[in-house]
Structure formats: structure tokens, C-alpha cells
């Protein structure tokens, strides 16, 4: 029985109800939002807290660069998380892997909240901090692919873009939650109190959020596509080896699609704009609490346009939605720093909100787009590893690169060209791939799924 007839199959082979599908959507939104709350709380704290409290030993000139290298470090371990999650997700199921990544991320984040600072234990403080950041990176590398497949593989054929937008909006929702909690905590504790104890509160809250996410995900059925594969004992023994042997070109091109979005997105999610606009020695010198609220507002815009893009991709196609998004994102990149550098809080808000329009349009279709690129038996490995490589090429060191460019040149002009170049790379990679909206996703259609979506190739 196929999972591609407009209704989703449960592991028992029965047609899932609309209520079951809503439960899956809700679980992927909430679970992904909680995971990315953890991830972005670290990035936000890098700009406001970790530079003075954990990386002071690097010296005033280099503390910011070293701290943002810590943000990028986690991306280097995302492929490890993606490899592990992809392997076991294709062999044991999407649901089990999602539970493990949720717990791993939550444990790392909570432990950060109790770490002693550099002043208390010296060099051991940043070492412990970076170790926990690595654990966050491994967990994040495994989370996205599982959440995406749970959503898209449960979806009716004509609503995969809309369903796939669910885990995507978990990312801006996580940013909104993180920025909101940090802004509220800072407003209550004050600047001194926030540096002394208040910064720990957002990290310690993670233990509560993880409990909520675990409870919600426990009630979600396994992906119907994987259930059908498992029922036939059709799991691939070495999914990653099959992926790299037969699908390497596709993986690299798909990674570049995400890299174009990720590099630009990490101007805020990686904490760079927060650091740049609040630096007391910089040109803007804005209040950190207000900047956090502006970032939270931009996250709302990002969420809305991500959802719109998922819906739109079901109407006009994934590829067309992407192309529109790249054009809008490019315009947002060229407007970003000219508006931010005016120092006007209104202009900063306009710049970040405009930027998120393009980010949403190039993020919303990604879940369905990626899912439709890979054969069912190695799909978890394909989407996870493409995503992880794209994160390294795009977002991993984007804040560090931006920080280094400004330190070297004293200007943001070259940062703009760097972000514009990454956007164009994303556009070109998109143009190299065919739109496969509504292709059957079940294991009965592996032969059709193995026909390459890359222009000029007959096999993946």
C-alpha cells in the first residue's frame, strides 16, 4: 500500500486521519523550535555574555573572533550528527532518532547554564563551553532531517510544501523564543545582573522545554514511508555508503542551495548583528535589550514568510518559489548594512525584517524540496548530510568571516559582497536541480526516485 495517494499511512498500514497529521505537524514545530531555542540561545549569548565572561583570555582585540569561532565549531560536528542520524534513521526509524537528538541538545544546553566562568576556573571554562557546543552541533545535525521526513512523509501529495514548512518554522520560532527570553531576562536583571547571573536562566529553562518536547514527540507515530520499508525488511544495510557512492553530486548541489540561505540567516541566528550593533566601540552602540526585541520581531517575519513559501511551493513549484526568494534575499542583503549603519533603531528593524522576507522564501520550500530529491531507502541520510554540509559551507563561519572582514577593513561593504556571493551560489545551485514536486515518496517507486534531479545526469 503506497503512502503517496494523498493520505498518509500509519505503521499498521491504515490511513492516518487529519487529526494524526495535525499531531505530527504540531510535534515537529514544537520539537524543532525547542531544539533551535537551545542552539540560538548559545549564539545570542556569544555576543552578549561569552565574549567577556569566557573568552577574555584571548585579549580584547581577538575575543570576539575567537568566540564566534565557537559558534562555527558546532557546524563542523553537524556532519557527524547527520551521518549517525542518517544511518540509524534509515535503519531504525525517524522517530527514535528525533527523541535522542532532543535529549542530547537539552542536556548540553542545561549544562552550559551551570558552567563556571573564565574568572573562576581559567582556560577550563571556554574548553568546557566549546565541548558542550560540539554536543549541540552533533544533536542539531541529526534533528533536522528526522523532523523534515516525519512532516513531509506524513503529508498528502499536494500539501508536502505546507507540511514541510512546519519543522522549518520551528527555526524562526526558536529564534523568537530565544531572543524573547534573553531580552526579558536582561530587562529584569539589568545589565550587571544579566552578566552576573541572568544569562544562565535561558539555558536552565531548557530542561523544562525538553521535557515538554519529549512528551509531545512520544505520541507521534513513525513515518509511514519508513514503516512500509521496515514492514518489508527493506532497510539499506549501509545507507551512507550508498548515498556517497551514487548520489554525491546531488548531495553537494543540494548543500549549496542551503548554504546560500544559511550564510545570510546566520547574521542574526549566529549572533553577529547582535554583537555588531551593541559593540560599545562600534558605530551603532545600540541598547542590547532593544536589539534582542528587534531580532525577535524579525523572527516573526521570518516565520510568516517561511510558512507562506511552503504553501506557495505547492502552488507554483519548489524551484520557482526558490528563485523568487533568492532575488528578494539579494535585495535584502544590499539593504542590510546601509540601514543598520544609520544607527536608527527603526532602520535596523526595517533592515532585519526585510532580510527575513527573502530568508523565509528560500527556507520554506527546503523540507519538501530535499525530501523529493532522494530515494526512500536512503532519504534520511541524503537530506541530513546535504543539510549539514550546507550549514558548514554557509552558516558555520559566516559570523566569524563578517567579524574578521570588519576588523580588517573597518567597513561592512565587503561583508555585503560576501553575503551577496553566497546568495548567488544558492540561486545557481537551485537552477541546476529539477523540480520533483508530487513525485511518489514510497519504497514502491525507488526506480523513479533514482532518476537524477540534476540537469545533465541520467542517474543520481
Automatic annotation (TrEMBL):
Keywords assigned by UniProt, alphabetized: Cell membrane, Membrane, Transmembrane, Transmembrane helix, Transport
Compartments, record wording: Cell membrane
GO molecular-function terms, A-Z: transmembrane transporter activity
Residues passing through the membrane, by range: 39-56, 62-85, 97-115, 162-185, 197-216, 247-268, 288-309, 321-339, 345-364, 376-397, 417-433
Keyword Transmembrane helix annotated: yes
GO CC, any one term: plasma membrane
Record-given protein name: MHS family MFS transporter
Amino acid at each position: 500500500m503506497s503512502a503517496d495517494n494523498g493520505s498518509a499511512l500509519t505503521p499498521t498500514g491504515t490511513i492516518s486521519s487529519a487529526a494524526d497529521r495535525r499531531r505530527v505537524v504540531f510535534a515537529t514545530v514544537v520539537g524543532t523550535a525547542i531544539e533551535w531555542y537551545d542552539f540560538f540561545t548559545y549564539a545570542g549569548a556569544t555576543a552578549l555574555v561569552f565574549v567577556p565572561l569566557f573568552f577574555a583570555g584571548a585579549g580584547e582585540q581577538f575575543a570576539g573572533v575567537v568566540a564566534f569561532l565557537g559558534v562555527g565549531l558546532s557546524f563542523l560536528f553537524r556532519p557527524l550528527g547527520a551521518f549517525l542520524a542518517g544511518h540509524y534513521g534509515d535503519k531504525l526509524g525517524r522517530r527514535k532518532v528525533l527523541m535522542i537528538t532532543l535529549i542530547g541538545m537539552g542536556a548540553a544546553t542545561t549544562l552550559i547554564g551551570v558552567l563556571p566562568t573564565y574568572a573562576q576556573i581559567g582556560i577550563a571554562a571556554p574548553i568546557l563551553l566549546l565541548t558542550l557546543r560540539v554536543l549541540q552541533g552533533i544533536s542539531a545535525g541529526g534533528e533536522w532531517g528526522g523532523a523534515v521526513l516525519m512532516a513531509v512523509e506524513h503529508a498528502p501529495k499536494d500539501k508536502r510544501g505546507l507540511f514541510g514548512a512546519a519543522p522549518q518554522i520551528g527555526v524562526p520560532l526558536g529564534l523568537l523564543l530565544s531572543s524573547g527570553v534573553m531580552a526579558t531576562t536582561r530587562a529584569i536583571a539589568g545589565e550587571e545582573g544579566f552578566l552576573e547571573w541572568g544569562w544562565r536562566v535561558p539555558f536552565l529553562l531548557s530542561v523544562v522545554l525538553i521535557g515538554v518536547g519529549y512528551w509531545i514527540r512520544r505520541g507521534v507515530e513513525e513515518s509511514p514511508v519508513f514503516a512500509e520499508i521496515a514492514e518489508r525488511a527493506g532497510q539499506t544495510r549501509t545507507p551512507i555508503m550508498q548515498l556517497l557512492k551514487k548520489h554525491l553530486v546531488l548531495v553537494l548541489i543540494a548543500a549549496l542551495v542551503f548554504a546560500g540561505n544559511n550564510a545570510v540567516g546566520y547574521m542574526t541566528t549566529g549572533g553577529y548583528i547582535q554583537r555588531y550593533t551593541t559593540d560599545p566601540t562600534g558605530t551603532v552602540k545600540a541598547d542590547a535589550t532593544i536589539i534582542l526585541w528587534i531580532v525577535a520581531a524579525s523572527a516573526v517575519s521570518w516565520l510568516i514568510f517561511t510558512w507562506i513559501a511552503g504553501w506557495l511551493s505547492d502552488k507554483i513549484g519548489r524551484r520557482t518559489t526558490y528563485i523568487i526568494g533568492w532575488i528578494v534575499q539579494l535585495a535584502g542583503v544590499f539593504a542590510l548594512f546601509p540601514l543598520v549603519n544609520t544607527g536608527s533603531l527603526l532602520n535596523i528593524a526595517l533592515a532585519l525584517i526585510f532580510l527575513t522576507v527573502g530568508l523565509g522564501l528560500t527556507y520554506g520550500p527546503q523540507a519538501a524540496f530535499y525530501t523529493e530529491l532522494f530515494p526512500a531507502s536512503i532519504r534520511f541520510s541524503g537530506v541530513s548530510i546535504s543539510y549539514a554540509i550546507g550549514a558548514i559551507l554557509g552558516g558555520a563561519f559566516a559570523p566569524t568571516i563578517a567579524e574578521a572582514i570588519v576588523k580588517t577593513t573597518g567597513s561592512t561593504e565587503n561583508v555585503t559582497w560576501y553575503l551577496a556571493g553566497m546568495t548567488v551560489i544558492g540561486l545557481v545551485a537551485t537552477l541546476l536541480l529539477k523540480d520533483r514536486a508530487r513525485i511518489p515518496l514510497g519504497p514502491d517507486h525507488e526506480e523513479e526516485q533514482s532518476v537524477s534531479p540534476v540537469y545533465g545526469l541520467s542517474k543520481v
